[in-house]
Amino acid sequence: MSWQTYVDEYLMCDIDGHTLTAAAIVGHDGSPWAYSSIFPEFKIEEIESIIKDFDEPGSLAPTGLYLGGTKYMVIQGESGAVIRAKKGSGGITVKKTNQSLVELKMSWQTYVDEYLMCDIDGHTLTAAAIVGHDGSPWAYSSIFPEFKIEEIESIIKDFDEPGSLAPTGLYLGGTKYMVIQGESGAVIRAKKGSGGITVKKTNQSLVVGIYEQPLTPGQCNIIVERLGDYLIEQGL
């Protein structure tokens, strides 16, 4: 089996109608063994920096990971084995093997489209998003409300100081939700009329789901918290 087959059949495989944006297998010396049609043209120095981070974990953190001239912000990976980094609504994962690097570019939008806006008994969330702790939107559904940074800051504060939102309510996109029982430091749940919102905090982001009947609060919680738990397991 050729190295190109591994890229074409195993890395660029279809998952629920979506694929990686690009993928490659690269030797430790920077030589490209196989790559997808639109994989970025990279410099040897970029691969050398990635290899250095595997040997000296954390060395990429101050500068970011560069590939094909594009800068990615390094997030938690697996020391000496996996590097994960993000840029806007997308990102990159690099896995080190004995002889090569397997490089994958993936989209946060896929998590929203396939895992948050999934169909449950013929119904879906009204809107969903993954937002960085700094308020930057990583990915969101088509009608997710336009929010203010201050609203995200207030949500983050409630995770750090549970109960701080109770007197004022949770605001998102100017809409006020009444905070109800959640999980201190991990999940905030709030309601408004026949609908509501669930926010799950992960290591790097907030997973947000907004619902209206006939979707139930419990179904919203399951959708949001299931993805949040998965991202936490992945160090994200």
From TrEMBL:
<comment type="subunit">
    <text>Occurs in many kinds of cells as a complex with monomeric actin in a 1:1 ratio.</text>
</comment>
<keyword id="KW-0963">Cytoplasm</keyword>
<keyword id="KW-0206">Cytoskeleton</keyword>
<dbReference type="InterPro" id="IPR005455">
    <property type="entry name" value="PFN_euk"/>
</dbReference>
<dbReference type="GO" id="GO:0005856">
    <property type="term" value="C:cytoskeleton"/>
</dbReference>
<protein>
    <recommendedName>
        <fullName>Profilin</fullName>
    </recommendedName>
</protein>
<dbReference type="InterPro" id="IPR036140">
    <property type="entry name" value="PFN_sf"/>
</dbReference>
<dbReference type="Pfam" id="PF00235">
    <property type="entry name" value="Profilin"/>
</dbReference>
<comment type="function">
    <text>Binds to actin and affects the structure of the cytoskeleton. At high concentrations, profilin prevents the polymerization of actin, whereas it enhances it at low concentrations.</text>
</comment>
<dbReference type="GO" id="GO:0005938">
    <property type="term" value="C:cell cortex"/>
</dbReference>
<keyword id="KW-0009">Actin-binding</keyword>
<dbReference type="GO" id="GO:0003785">
    <property type="term" value="F:actin monomer binding"/>
</dbReference>
<dbReference type="InterPro" id="IPR027310">
    <property type="entry name" value="Profilin_CS"/>
</dbReference>
<comment type="similarity">
    <text>Belongs to the profilin family.</text>
</comment>
<dbReference type="InterPro" id="IPR048278">
    <property type="entry name" value="PFN"/>
</dbReference>
